[in-house]
Every structure is written in structure tokens, then in C-alpha cells.
Automatic annotation (TrEMBL):
<feature type="domain" description="NodB homology">
    <location>
        <begin position="73"/>
        <end position="258"/>
    </location>
</feature>
<protein>
    <submittedName>
        <fullName>Polysaccharide deacetylase family protein</fullName>
        <ecNumber>3.-.-.-</ecNumber>
    </submittedName>
</protein>
<dbReference type="Pfam" id="PF01522">
    <property type="entry name" value="Polysacc_deac_1"/>
</dbReference>
<dbReference type="InterPro" id="IPR050248">
    <property type="entry name" value="Polysacc_deacetylase_ArnD"/>
</dbReference>
<dbReference type="InterPro" id="IPR011330">
    <property type="entry name" value="Glyco_hydro/deAcase_b/a-brl"/>
</dbReference>
<dbReference type="GO" id="GO:0016787">
    <property type="term" value="F:hydrolase activity"/>
</dbReference>
<dbReference type="InterPro" id="IPR002509">
    <property type="entry name" value="NODB_dom"/>
</dbReference>
<keyword id="KW-0378">Hydrolase</keyword>
Length: 478
């Protein structure tokens, strides 16, 4: 009987050699690939881990976003905890004053008073998200709870008024409540977190007196942009009563009022050590990050509310001008004396300036040339350049922007600039133009028989080509 043949050692060796040859060829091919081909490929898991470690250390990744800076000093009135039975009174005051504000509403209160949410939107105010129920123990126990409350309120706002607010204010503010994870995850979802730089003090305790609220506001530092914290929730009758006086205080200082938008650089507190005991594992962070990024993809388009608010910001100069309901005759019957120190100055005839409330408007060329500077006009780009001492100020009419240069170095830019062309001349406000040129209006007299302003500088400047040095003459406007 013939035996069946067995695989020979020769055939086995051939198979092994073939396998090794293929393996060697693959190794040679991989080795010949440039290192960059692998280094440049992103590894999402590694990136998330790196971000996680950064946030765990309490640091926030830098944001690369540009914001609009209003040319006129601006107050952003913000109201938290509503809507309540007091909100209609707040809205009535704002309507009477002709200004717009921002309302950080609670979903729970919005659900109970949907008509007030509709009115806030209809009257041109910005609606922000202040979570659903304002309960600290829940909101700051874990980011997922905060996130769900933001989503719940947003759904309510959408059902009531068709808007999904992208501005978020944390109950109690972010300091010691938020950690770096809270900030980062909300930003990844497309939200803007807004704190404040002036606290009216109307929620430090129950029934804060009106005088105390007003005193707190007036004692607060003045900045170019002020985000003021107020409350329109139940129990804040004093806030409503103080509101007209607060508005008048800032108006007298020359501030405009505008609603917050995503184009306004938000006031944010630094990341402090959280007073809440909570932990964030890498797995939990990755799950939350995935959820927030999916939200951003699903809601990538700006909401109707944000479009409306952006238009309000662009037009805030016109809104600010409309706030002054009382105006003096456009052609004043008195000349205006402008003093610049050292017994020098010049006079504006009644036809050479306009006075609206306490606001003086005049020709840019006339003002600069009277002070010893000069104007260059670039016709192709419709831009005027005011040259004065160490300062050059570009007035870009098409873009309505101002660019300020000191010794040739660009030091500031302002959007939505307050300027307009009238009969071939650029008309500008006196006070803000003097500020840009390195000076201040130190005194102003606007009486029935006398109109006079006094200017001062810290630096050497030219008046009719004569050097003048003003020493220690820079004071706040009386």
C-alpha cells in the first residue's frame, strides 16, 4: 500500500521565505516614508488628553477671536434672574430712555412669563441664558448638570420666541464657581460667558436701599466699556427705582448704552479655586467634549436674536445720539470760546459748531488747524488723517473706523466711530476728538449767556506753530 506524501521541509522553507520577503518589503516602504507624513496627522485622542491636562492645572487655552471696540464709552446694562413682575417696569424705563440692555433670563421664569420674553426680543434687547433654576448646589456639582440646564432653558427660549441665546451668565458669577473645564466646554459649544466689571450691589442682601445702590455704582471705577450687573428678579424693587438715576449718571459722563452681543469682548473673572467639590476624569471630559462639539455642529448658524443684536451694536452710535431727547437749537446763538492754556485759544462762531445736550460737534479740519495741526485727505479711500504733535488719527469714512498712531506706532483702533460727512466736512464730537489727540476737556460752561470750554494736555503741543507746555493741568471734567 502506497503512503500519502507529507509536506517537505523544502516547501515549508519556501513559504517562510516568501512571508519574510513581503514583510521586509513592507518595512522598507514604511521606512522610506517621510517622518512628517506621520507627524502631521492629528491624533484627536492625544489632543484631547493634552487639553485635559492643561485644564486640570487650572489654565485656559488662549482664544483667538477679535472683538469690536466702540469708539464712544459704552455701558452695557445687564439684568439677571428675570423675567418677573418687575421686568415690565424695567422695560418701560428703558423704552422711555431710548436705550437697549441685556436680560439674562432663567428658563423657569421664562416658562412662567413667556410674554415678557417676547417683549424683550421685540423691543430690541439681547436675551441671555442664566440657566434654568439658579440652584447653586445643582449647577456646580458637575458640568453635565450645568450643561443640561443651559440646554433646557435654551429650548424654552426657542419655543417661546424662536431664539437660542449664545450669551451665558453663571449664577453668582464664574469666580470660584467655574473651573477651567466649565469655560472650555461652553466655549467649544459656541457660547460666550459674560461676567461684569461693575456690580450695583443690589443683591448683596434683601431690600438694599436705593441710595446704597446708586452710591455703589458711582463709586465704581470708570472704564471705556462697562458691563453693569443689576437684577430684575422678584424682590428687587429698589433696583427698578434706582435705574433712571443710574442711567442719567452715565449719560452725564458721556456714555452711550448698548446691548451685549458676541462681538463685544466679554468681561470674565479669572479662574479661581472652585469652592465646590467635584472631579473630572479624562473619560468624563472626553464624553462632555464630544457632546458640546456635536451641539456646535448642530447649531453653527447664528440665531435671529444674534443677528438682530449685531445690527443694534453696529447702530449703537445712532442709538446713543437718539437718547438725548432734549436738544438745543442746531444753530446756537452764542459763540463758543475754546481755551487751551497760557491765555491762548480761539472762538467758534455760532455757525461753526452744533450743540446737542452737552455734546459739541464741529468740523475736524477746523478744530485741528485751529490747534496748530493739519489734515491730510486721501481721496481714493475717503480717509482723513489728523496730524497733531506725536499723534496721527486716521478717520476712515467708508468703514466708520478710527486708527490712532503715536509716533508712527499704531496704538488703538475703534469701530463704529462717531463721525459723519456734512457739506464736504467731516463732523466730529469735540470731547472725544480732543481725547484722541492726547488731551482732555477740563471744564465746560454752557449757560444762557456764556459758552466756554477749557482744554489741557500732558505733553508739548503746537498752537499756531508756537510750542506750549501745559504742566499738571489735566483734570477730570467738572
Amino acid at each position: 500500500m502506497r503512503a500519502h506524501p507529507q509536506p517537505s521541509n523544502y516547501k515549508m522553507r519556501k513559504r517562510i521565505q516568501l512571508f519574510m520577503a513581503v514583510l521586509l518589503a513592507a518595512y522598507v516602504w514604511l521606512a522610506s516614508m517621510p517622518v512628517e507624513a506621520f507627524a502631521n496627522e492629528s491624533n484627536p485622542a492625544q489632543e484631547d488628553q493634552a487639553i485635559y491636562q492643561l485644564l486640570k492645572s487650572g489654565k485656559r487655552p488662549p482664544q483667538e477671536k477679535s472683538y469690536q471696540t466702540p469708539e464712544q464709552p459704552t455701558v452695557y446694562l445687564t439684568f439677571d434672574d428675570g423675567p418677573s413682575k418687575l421686568t415690565p417696569q424695567v422695560l418701560d424705563i428703558l423704552q422711555k430712555e431710548g436705550i437697549h440692555a441685556t436680560f439674562f433670563a432663567l428658563g423657569e421664569e421664562a416658562k412662567a412669563r413667556p410674554d415678557l420674553i417676547k417683549r424683550i426680543i421685540a423691543e430690541g434687547h439681547t436675551l441671555g441664558n442664566h440657566t434654568y433654576n439658579h440652584v447653586y448646589n445643582e449647577l456646580y456639582s458637575d458640568f453635565q448638570v450645568f450643561w443640561k440646564q443651559i440646554q433646557e432653558s435654551e429650548t424654552i427660549f426657542d419655543q417661546i420666541a424662536g431664539v437660542r441665546p449664545q450669551l451665558v451668565r453663571a449664577p453668582g458669577g464664574t469666580y470660584t464657581n467655574f473651573d477651567a473645564y466649565y469655560f472650555y466646554l461652553l466655549e467649544q459649544a459656541g457660547y460666550t460667558i459674560v461676567d461684569w466689571n461693575v456690580d450695583s450691589g443690589d443683591s448683596t442682601r434683601a431690600n438694599v436701599p436705593v441710595k446704597e445702590i446708586i452710591h455703589t455704582v458711582k463709586s465704581s471705577p470708570l472704564e471705556h466699556e462697562i458691563t453693569l450687573l443689576l437684577h430684575d428678579g422678584a424682590g428687587h424693587e429698589s433696583s427698578v427705582e434706582a435705574l433712571p438715576q443710574i442711567i442719567q449718571y452715565y449719560k452725564d459722563l458721556g456714555y452711550a448704552f448698548a446691548p451685549l452681543t458676541s462681538e463685544v469682548k466679554p468681561k470674565q473673572f479669572s479662574v479661581g479655586k472652585p469652592k465646590w467639590s467635584r472631579k473630572m476624569s479624562l473619560t468624563h471630559f472626553e464624553d462632555l467634549l464630544q457632546e458640546t462639539k456635536q451641539y456646535a455642529l448642530a447649531h453653527g448658524q447664528p440665531s435671529p436674536e444674534s443677528d438682530k443684536a449685531a445690527n443694534q451694536l453696529v447702530n449703537q452710535t445712532q442709538v446713543a445720539q437718539a437718547e438725548s431727547a432734549q436738544t438745543l437749537p442746531p444753530a446756537p446763538s452764542l459763540p463758543l470760546q475754546v481755551n487751551v492754556g497760557g491765555g491762548r485759544g480761539f472762538t467758534l462762531e455760532p455757525t461753526q459748531y452744533q450743540l446737542q445736550s452737552s455734546r459739541i460737534e464741529l468740523s475736524l479740519r477746523f478744530l485741528v488747524e485751529k490747534m496748530g495741526g493739519y489734515i491730510s485727505w486721501m481721496e481714493p479711500v475717503k480717509t482723513a488723517i489728523a496730524h497733531y504733535g506725536v499723534y496721527d488719527v486716521e478717520y476712515d469714512l467708508p468703514k466708520r473706523s478710527i486708527r490712532l498712531f503715536n509716533l508712527g506706532k499704531r496704538v488703538a483702533s475703534y469701530s463704529m466711530a462717531d463721525m459723519q460727512m456734512r457739506e464736504g466736512s467731516i463732523i466730529v464730537p469735540l470731547r472725544k476728538t480732543i481725547d484722541l489727540l492726547g488731551g482732555r476737556v477740563t471744564d465746560a460752561v454752557m449757560e444762557t449767556d456764556k459758552r466756554e470750554v477749557t482744554l489741557a494736555w500732558h505733553h508739548l503741543f503746537m498752537l499756531n506753530e508756537t510750542p506750549i507746555l501745559l504742566k499738571n493741568s489735566l483734570f477730570a471734567l467738572k
